[in-house]
Amino acid sequence: MNQNRILQVDRLTKSYGKGAHQTEALQGISFDVLEGEFLGIMGASGSGKTTLLNCIATMIKPSSGKILLKDTDISSLKGSALADYRGRKIGYLFQEFELLDNMTAQENIALPLSLQGISLEQAKEDIWQIAERFDITDVLNKFPSQMSGGQKQRTAAARAFISNPGLILADEPTGALDSKNSKILMDMLTSMNEEEHKTIMMVTHDPNAASYCSRILFIQDGRLFHELRRNQREETAEAFYERIVTVIAQLGGGSANVL
What we know:
The protein is of the alpha/beta class. The protein has a single domain, classed as Rossmann fold (3-Layer(aba) Sandwich). The chain is built from eight helices and ten strands. A hairpin with a 2-residue loop joins strand 9 and strand 10 (223-229). Helix 3 packs parallel to helix 5. The longest helix is centred in the C-terminal third of the chain and has 17 residues, at 179-195. It is globular and about 50 Å long.
């Protein structure tokens, strides 16, 4: 299968503070993301993983460098073009779900569509289909306070996918889940990647979650440290997991320090 480049990150830098107090969160990082790829980003706490993700999501502005989504420089986007990028071109899956407490699951899922002027009534069929994929049809009329952690995160995942974005950004999606619900979520994200050819870029500290990826970039001090590719045909998730743990140890101090 020929894969096209969907995202290009080119010599990206991000600095905080000034003078002696300046921190270089990203130091000229460059890489591509291919269409249909499941890319993992790993690194120690403070390595720049979430800063990188938030630059791509346009939550923060890089100090220099470029981010191109399908050859469009996202730093040039303003007004309706920027809203379109955030609402339709990318989906964002947060660690802490970020569901609105006063809305039901289906209303939360429909949020990106409502921002595009699509009513809940118009969206009901699409919501039902994505809810089936994430096994949450039974909570569509429930509020977040009535859901388990796993149901909340799968609702958040459905919201990220509902507008059929070209790229899903996931920031520690299993971070607030137990091991059982983590596996359920990762199986579902893998299904969306493999069966629906969705492109996913996931920041994670969890080697188990990372072992579902097709490629992993390891970041150290704002720079690329190492890259692992999984041999999709021959390598099991268990064997890939072992290779991930080995690189984590080389990053310094073992998996306990990779947050």
